[in-house]
Design goal:
- The chain has 386 residues and is an alpha+beta fold.
- It has nine helices and twelve strands.
- It has helices at residues 4-21, 25-37, 46-77, 94-122, 239-250, 257-267, 306-314, 337-349, 355-375, and strands at 130-137, 140-144, 154-157, 160-168, 172-179, 184-188, 193-197, 203-208, 213-219, 232-237, 293-295, 301-303.
- The strands form three sheets. The protein has a six-stranded mixed β-sheet with strand order 3-4-10-9-6-7.
- Helix 2 (25-37) crosses helix 3 and helix 7 crosses helix 8 (337-349).
- The longest helix has 32 residues, at 46-77.
- The protein starts with a helix and ends in an 11-residue tail after the last helix.
- It binds heme C and copper (II) ion (CU).
- Copper (II) ion binds at residues 184, 219, 221, 223, 227, 230.
Length: 386
């Protein structure tokens, strides 16, 4: 009883310190925490998102230290001593109770307000956003740009060939996302947002990239064996570079057939399941399969040729290679005729006896490209803007 007014006076002082220190906490946190634990900030909401996290972190850290500290001090100070009876606990103290209800109420109210406001903004894409259709599939990402362009550029991230996706700096981009198999989650730490990608439903992820540079994209929802390899590199570019990049992806006619097949195998995610070195993965390796005879689960023998590869891509479940699961997704409607031929030529080129066939396909393709250019000369004349 005797010591209670002293505690009240002390908690009033502490209250004042909290009130003064809290506005500084995010600023302090900004320097220390950001450099220690947080990746670069590259999008419009990266900063505000960090501020909300830091506010919550430092508020809770402060009260944790305060409460645990007081508890430790009280345990020692008011410990049971020989010959001293335990005093009765006070039943009521109005100023103290108002303080410990009012201060947390204000702080939690602030957390709710800042969090909810930011959440609503982050879920509301601007009307003038560039829309990119994103498809997630075990274990890769496909981005279809507004003109139908798809990325053919790739890089090696942690020993995995991964696609590169360009986005313009300073412009709102809206990803409309869908999965063809299981639940994935698109996560770009530098943009501070993560949204699930779900089969049979569209979800949206929007951002305005603010810093030119390269940032990582991960799948953040465990989706099977190669989940951790489901990565991509996001390149934030100036608008001019972005337009140039798009034009480069769109015009594949100049890329030789085998090279196009190689690029597509990376960007379409085939190599997540098919190795090039003979080691079986989720699917059979592509090394030295051209011209071989493969046995299917129903006992049928099939020669690996143009028709078989084409069917494997468009209707993977028509025939299942013995010893493998029916795990390959269909690519129906995804590739043009020339792109399908590119896969065939590429797979042929991976076999010791396939080199000649691949060569022949390249020559036929060259002849065809020339013929189609001769048929429609205007196609090769640059169009003018009116
Ligand atoms: C999720 C894993 C997965 C992905 C991605 C995948 N495949 Fe497959 N693929 C398989 C499996 C498993 C088989 C064997 C079972 C079957 O026949 O369907 C297979 C079989 C094949 C075969 C027949 C191989 C043989 O030895 O008989 C070809 C050709 C093929 N895939 C091409 C492709 C191409 C081209 C792509 C990309 C456009 C691709 N696959 C993407 C899993 C995958
Ligand atoms: Cu995934």
């Amino acid at each position: 009883m005797r010591s209670l007014p002293k505690i009240t006076a002390r908690s009033a002082t502490l209250g004042a310190i909290i009130a003064l220190a809290l506005p500084c906490a995010p600023a302090m946190a900004d320097g220390v925490m950001r450099r220690m634990f947080f990746p670069a900030r590259a999008a419009e909401y990266s900063g505000p998102s960090d501020s909300v996290s830091f506010f919550i972190f430092w508020t809770t850290a402060f009260f944790f230290v305060l409460l645990m500290g007081l508890m430790a001090i009280f345990v020692v100070k008011y410990r049971r001593r020989p010959g001293q009876a335990a005093p009765r606990s006070p039943s009521h103290n109005t100023p103290l109770e108002l303080a410990w209800s009012g201060i947390p109420l204000i702080l939690l109210g602030m957390m709710f307000f800042f969090g909810a406001r930011l959440y609503i903004e982050m879920r509301t894409p601007p009307i003038d956003s560039t829309v990119i259709n994103v498809t997630a599939q075990k274990w890769g990402w496909t981005w279809e740009y507004p003109g139908g362009e798809q990325s053919l550029e790739s890089v090696t991230l942690a020993n995995v060939s991964s696609p590169v996706f360009a986005v313009p700096v300073g412009k709102p981009v809206r990803l409309v996302m869908n999965s063809t198999d299981v639940i994935h989650s698109l996560y770009i730490p530098a943009f501070r947002d993560k949204v699930d990608v779900i089969p049979n439903r569209y979800t949206t992820y929007w951002f305005r990239a603010e810093k030119i540079g390269e940032y990582h994209l991960y799948c953040a929802e465990y989706c099977g064996d190669q989940h951790s390899q489901m990565m991509a590199l996001i390149k934030v570019m100036s608008d001019a570079d972005y337009q140039e990049w798009l034009a480069e992806q769109a015009d594949t006619s100049a890329i030789p057939l085998v090279e196009l097949g190689r690029k597509l195998s990376i960007s379409a995610g085939c190599l997540a399941c098919h190795s090039l070195d003979g080691r079986p993965g989720t699917g059979p390796s592509w090394k030295n399969i051209w011209g071989n005879t493969h046995v299917m689960t129903d006992g049928e023998s099939v020669k690996v040729d143009e028709n078989y590869i084409r069917e494997s891509i468009l209707e993977p479940n028509a025939r299942i290679v013995a010893g493998y699961p029916a795990q390959m997704p269909t690519y129906q409607g995804r590739f043009s005729d020339r792109e399908l031929r590119a896969f065939i030529a590429y797979i042929a080129s991976l076999s010791d006896d396939g080199a000649e066939d691949a060569e022949r396909m390249m020559e036929e393709d060259d002849a065809e490209q020339e013929a189609s250019e001769a048929d429609s000369p205007q196609a090769s004349v640059p169009t003018t803007d009116f």
